[in-house]
Write a structure and sequence with these properties.
Elements: E1 3-4, H1 5-12, E2 15-18, E3 24-25, E4 27-28, E5 38-41, H2 48-51, E6 58-61, E7 74-77, H3 81-91, E8 118-119, E9 124-125, E10 130-131, E11 136-137, E12 142-143, E13 148-149, E14 154-155, E15 160-161, E16 166-167, E17 172-175, E18 180-183, E19 186-189, E20 196-198, E21 203-204, E22 209-211, E23 218-220, E24 225-226, E25 231-232, E26 237-238, E27 243-244, E28 249-250, E29 255-256, E30 261-262, E31 267-268, E32 273-274, E33 278-280, E34 285-286, E35 294-296, H4 305-316, H5 318-326
Parallel strand pairs: 4-5, 5-6, 6-7, 8-11, 9-12, 10-13, 11-14, 12-15, 13-16, 14-17, 15-20, 16-21, 17-22, 20-23, 21-24, 22-25, 23-26, 24-27, 25-28, 26-29, 27-30, 28-31, 29-32, 30-33, 31-34, 33-35
Antiparallel strand pairs: 1-3, 2-7, 18-19
């Protein structure tokens, strides 16, 4: 699916500042995945370093940030770039990702498929795959050798699952992420065009939800083990041999390293990087990058937010305060 620059502007109610109206745009991409035929959306100055390395030559941005985008061949000005981004995800949403498509039962005679399960005809199974009862597996899903999908699981389109994995009952993999743009008091859903990629020997507990990526993918590497009731949001990356206990919530675009151990009910804010060999104690809130291996904990009673901020700053400076009294 492709559109001219002029067609895109008319669809997102924006204007061309620079560029040819007839220039063809073929895709909406992240900065690092974009080609010359892609369009990117520059919404915030905190992403300005990514502008230098992108191969895209077409950019949507705001009037206030246009000075940072002057090197682009084609520039589109939007009053609300985040709303434009949401519109573009709907425009470029691929037809073969339509969740309302009919799901067929072509595998009903296979002994390893449970009763009530519906599977699209375009699913690739490896050897000795087992699927429980009342599951739904959508189009273009790939499942590797010796993987077990337990009862009542939903695997959305284009999900990739490796070999020797175990997906416990009630898991949902590849669902739409929680992404919306508010415009004139209405919420417009940002369509998620990425997929979920799961490596080999991954264990996913009951009733976990793993969302597909927005433009890039949500990725879980080999030998990761995940307990029950865990939510992994869009674009999260989890590296090998990491263990995650129950009721953990990981917000979008966070990156978790190798051999990490994350305790129960931990909350991890979005866009964070956690290095290898980190242990996070139960009920901790992770709101900044963790750059050094080790064990980390945080636990506050419920406080007004303004007071909580003051106390957290004081705690971080306690060692300096104590030293000042001991001099």
């Amino acid at each position: 699916m492709s559109f001219t620059l002029n067609e895109i502007c008319s669809k997102i109610d924006a204007k061309i500042l620079k560029g040819e109206e007839s220039f063809i745009i073929e895709s909406l991409k992240d900065f690092d995945k974009a080609t010359k035929e892609s369009i990117i959306v520059f919404k915030d100055v905190k992403y300005s370093t990514q502008l230098k390395n992108t191969k895209a030559i077409t950019c949507v941005t705001s009037e206030s940030n246009v000075k940072l985008c002057l090197s682009f061949k084609n520039i589109i000005i939007s009053e609300d770039p985040n709303h434009s981004f949401a519109l573009l995800t709907n425009i470029f949403y691929p037809k073969n990702s339509n969740f309302s498509q009919e799901i067929h039962s072509n595998y009903k005679n296979t002994p390893l498929i449970g009763s009530g399960t519906k599977i699209s005809p375009n699913v690739f199974f490896g050897r000795n795959v087992s699927v429980g009862c009342n599951c739904v597996i959508e189009d273009n899903v790939t499942i590797g050798d010796d993987t077990v999908i337990d009862h009542n699981c939903t695997i959305y389109n284009s999900t990739e699952i490796g070999s020797n994995c175990y997906i416990s009952s009630g898991a949902t993999i590849g669902s739409q992420g929680f992404g919306f743009a508010k415009h004139q008091n209405e919420w417009l859903q940002i369509k998620h065009l990425g997929v979920v990629q799961i490596g080999n020997r991954v264990h996913i507990g009951s009733n976990c939800t793993i969302d597909r990526g927005t433009l890039s993918n949500t990725t879980i590497r080999d030998n990761v083990i995940i307990d029950n009731l865990v939510h992994i949001a869009h674009n999260v990356f989890i590296d090998t041999d990491t263990a995650i206990a129950a009721k953990v919530g990981i917000a979008g675009s966070s990156n978790i390293g190798k051999r990490c151990m994350i305790g129960g009910m931990v909350g991890i804010f979005g866009h964070l990087k956690i290095t290898d060999d980190v242990i996070i104690s139960p009920k901790s809130n992770v709101y900044r990058d963790i750059k050094k291996p080790g064990r980390y904990s945080s636990l506050f009673p419920l406080l007004e937010h303004s007071l909580w901020k003051k106390i957290s700053i004081l705690i971080s400076k306690l060692d300096k305060i104590i030293k000042s009294f001991t001099k």
